[in-house]
């Protein structure tokens, strides 16, 4: 039975037909397990086309797995990780970063999801003090949890203060394709070339079925990662089914087409919401998320027709996400529901 496309999360969306077909194509015969297969080798080559030959790429099942294990590879338990207070690391990973790495998360309050060198500086006075966790990694999210996007200059500035203090820069790229489309840049320009050291590269939110990647731009940082991945329960035996998806995802600009559709639909949704006096957009719409203040009495009515998340109960502010498969008629139906809920 076909269900209506909603706006709760791009995780709720379907799988792109080309991705499904890619899985079907490799579902013949037997292949060596755990990534020692030609499909995985080809997928890794696709990553190298985008980022250069001097990288290490490892496929994992989940975004949390990519974030946590990527950070674990470059930290000791006495280190700290600096991130936004609304970061996925801090809010949505059930303490996994602290549990697996032993590191302390140092969080920075932010109104738009982004942190700056000025925000980071106050955490840097403790180097060498044995009573304090030692800052080791700055982690940023691109695009952010509030739908905003770091500019190339902002990333370079953060990389600057990070590297000046002999720290590393990690990027949670769960929605990296949406950010790339928003910036009009290729992946390498705002990651490797901008000073990012470790990248969690997301595919699931942009049309894949399952699978994320950890990309190391310095192979010294990944020298023990194959053991960390196995110990972290993220080594897939039938890895070719994840690899096939990435191979297709990174071919013929499928990633870009999917992200462009999601971003354009978010802009359309925002424009339509702005026509409704009772609705107020609270964040810049730069990727595929729209944050909007709607009076509570209307939110409860709308929730009877559409499931979505109330991001901030004080507003309330709700989060509406568009996906690669969102269509104009989906937005028309949602807007009609919102208007009807206000009028009734």
Give a structural overview:
- There is one protein chain.
- The protein contains 13 helices and eleven strands.
- The chain has two domains: 17-249, Type I PLP-dependent aspartate aminotransferase-like (Major domain) (Aspartate Aminotransferase, domain 2, 3-Layer(aba) Sandwich), CATH 3.40.640; 254-343, Aspartate Aminotransferase, domain 1 (Alpha-Beta Complex).
- Strand 10 and strand 11 form a beta hairpin.
- With 344 residues, it is an alpha/beta fold.
- The longest helix has 21 residues, at 254-274.
- It has helices at residues 17-25, 38-51, 63-72, 88-91, 96-101, 117-120, 152-164, 176-183, 225-231, 240-249, 254-274, 296-303, 328-343; strands at 56-60, 79-84, 104-108, 134-141, 168-173, 198-202, 212-216, 280-281, 289-293, 309-312, 317-321.
- Helix content is 38%, strand content 16%.
- The chain has a seven-stranded mixed beta sheet with strand order 1-7-6-5-4-2-3.
- Helix 2 (38-51) runs parallel beside helix 10.
């Amino acid at each position: 039975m076909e269900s209506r496309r909603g706006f709760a999360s791009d995780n709720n969306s379907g799988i792109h037909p080309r991705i499904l077909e890619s899985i079907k194509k490799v579902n013949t015969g037997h292949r060596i397990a755990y990534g020692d297969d030609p499909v995985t080798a080809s997928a890794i080559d696709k990553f190298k086309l985008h980022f250069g030959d001097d990288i290490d790429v490892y496929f994992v099942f989940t975004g949390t797995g990519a974030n946590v294990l990527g950070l674990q590879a470059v930290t000791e338990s006495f280190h700290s990780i600096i991130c936004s207070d609304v970061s996925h690391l801090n809010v949505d990973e059930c303490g996994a970063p602290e549990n697996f790495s032993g590191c302390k998360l140092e969080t920075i309050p932010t109104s738009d999801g982004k942190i700056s060198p000025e925000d980071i500086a106050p955490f840097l006075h403790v180097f060498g003090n044995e009573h304090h966790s030692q800052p080791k990694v700055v982690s940023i999210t691109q695009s952010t949890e509030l739908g905003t996007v770091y500019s190339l200059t902002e990333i370079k500035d953060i990389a600057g203060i990070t590297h000046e203090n002999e720290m590393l820069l990690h990027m949670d790229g769960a929605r990296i394709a949406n950010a790339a489309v928003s910036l009009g840049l290729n992946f390498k320009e705002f990651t490797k070339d901008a000073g990012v050291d470790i990248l969690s590269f997301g595919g699931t939110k942009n049309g894949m079925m399952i699978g994320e990647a950890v990309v190391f731009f310095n192979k010294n940082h990944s020298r023990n990662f194959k053991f960390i991945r196995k110990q972290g329960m993220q080594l897939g035996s039938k890895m070719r089914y994840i690899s096939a998806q990435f191979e297709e995802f990174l071919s013929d600009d499928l990633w870009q087409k999917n992200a462009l559709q999601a971003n354009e639909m978010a802009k359309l949704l925002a424009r339509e919401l702005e026509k409704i006096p009772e609705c107020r957009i609270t964040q810049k719409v730069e990727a595929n998320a729209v944050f909007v203040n709607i009076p509570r009495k209307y939110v409860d009515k709308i929730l009877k027709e559409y499931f979505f998340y109330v991001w901030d109960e004080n507003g309330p502010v709700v989060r509406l996400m568009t996906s690669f498969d969102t269509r104009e008629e989906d937005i028309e139906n949602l807007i009609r529901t919102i208007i009807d809920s206000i009028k009734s």
